[in-house]
Specification:
Layout lengths: L1 H15 L1 H13 L3 H29 L1 H21 L3 H18 L1 H11 L4 H12 L2 H15 L2 H23 L17 H7 L1 H30 L4 H28 L2 H21 L4 H23 L1 H6 L4 H30 L2 H18 L15
Length: 388
């Protein structure tokens, strides 16, 4: 548990959150456009979504040690490629390698490990690790900025690659060597293996639900700053609203276990996504005062924190933990791809729609559709501490 907390903070902080801090320096130094460099980063997220399907299969059979250790090594090497990139082609190559590393070191393999090793108390374990992961930007965004203030972006990435290797490679190799428990038996209502689950209506509707929800959620996160600036608030005020929303996300994760005890999985899914739609609509329609907007941003963060754990437990609550890695990879792939594309799509749509308030109305509508499709995710419940 401490090892996974450490490696999630470090992996997310270096491979994911360092980029937005360094991107202005990258574009200024190289002359590459911000659109091109951001496209490389988004391509990494898409690769991560696709690679996660294969990673999930390996996790079910072999456990997380080899996958996450190899991912740490690949992540460090990919950052060195990015740091040395003489042109955009090599820069893209480095980020595509980083995308494969993301699939092997981010939440999905950590969730698979916790679900198998900590069952039936996996909700508490997932909560602890996601709380730690929420500190990634708090720790590494300022550290990256400090490094970039004293050296080039290339040297900063070299240092970060070293930190990633030193902190995560031995932690994954040493702390994850416990025997991998055999897969628990499938629930009685699952008779045809994972193929039956993937073909089921509940699985398909779950994929649609989480994809729509992820698109709306990530577009809201990226669009909050320009939304507030359109309304006349300063960049600093908008950044504070976004940052406090992140604090709300951490708070939300502490509440999920209690919510899971009181609501069944389908009711929980519908409720959380509908509340997400409500907060998005509020951000679209409330122009002020500033304190009220900050309060809505914090509440939206609370919902986002719960949605992270909702997806982490979606497979076990409905189909058990027998094929958790494979099913979570398949279920998460379209949602992760939507999350990767959401920032671009939001920026592109905001202009034709007439601004970010109209965009947020559209995103609220998508969340409402996701809440409706969530009604189709009902399956025979798996009895356990998640409240199923």
């Amino acid at each position: 548990m401490p090892a996974l907390c450490l490696t999630q903070i470090t992996s997310w902080g270096i491979v994911y959150y360092a980029f937005p801090v360094l991107n202005p320096a990258i574009t200024a130094d190289t002359g590459w456009s911000a659109g091109a460099t951001t496209a490389a980063f988004s391509a990494a997220l898409v690769v991560s979504a696709v690679a996660g399907i294969y990673v999930g299969r390996v996790l079910d059979h072999r456990g997380p040690r080899t996958v996450m250790t190899a991912g740490s090594v690949l992540g460090s090497l990919s950052l060195l490629v990015i740091a040395a990139a003489p042109d955009l082609a090599v820069f893209f190559t480095g980020w595509l390698l980083a995308g494969a590393a993301m699939a092997a070191v981010f939440y999905q393999p950590a969730f698979a490990a916790l679900t198998r090793w900590w069952a039936p108390d996996h909700i508490r374990a997932l909560t602890v690790v996601t709380l730690a992961g929420g500190l990634a930007s708090t720790v590494f965004a300022p550290l990256t900025a400090i490094l970039a203030g004293h050296m080039s972006w290339r040297a900063t990435y070299v240092v970060l690659a070293g930190i990633l290797a030193v902190l995560t490679v031995p932690a994954h190799a040493i702390a994850l060597k416990a025997p991998w428990p055999p897969a628990p038996p499938s629930p009685p209502h699952i008779t045809g293996g994972h193929e039956q689950v993937v073909r089921s209506r509940a699985f398909r509707m779950s994929a649609v639900t989480f994809t729509l929800s992820a698109f709306a959620m990530y577009a809201v996160v990226i669009g909050l700053v320009p939304l507030l600036m359109e309304r006349g608030y300063t960049t600093t005020q908008a950044a504070w609203a976004l940052g406090l929303g992140g604090a709300g996300q951490t708070l939300g994760r502490t509440l999920y276990a209690s919510l899971a005890r009181h609501l069944g999985v389908t009711a929980r899914t519908v409720t959380l996504i509908a509340l997400g739609a409500l907060t998005t609509a509020a951000l679209a329609t409330v122009a002020g005062p500033y304190a009220l907007l900050v309060s809505v941003s914090v509440l939206a963060g609370v919902i986002r924190g719960n949605l992270t754990l909702l997806q982490a437990t979606a497979v076990t609550d409905r189909w058990g933990a027998t094929h958790y890695g494979r099913l979570s990879g398949l279920l998460g792939a379209p949602a992760h791809a939507a999350a990767a594309l959401a920032p671009f799509a939001g920026a592109v749509l905001a202009g034709p729609l007439g601004g970010y308030p109209a965009l947020f109305v559209l995103l609220a509508g998508l969340s409402i559709i996701a809440a409706v499709t969530a009604l189709g995710t009902r399956t025979r419940p798996v009895i356990g501490p998640s409240g199923g």
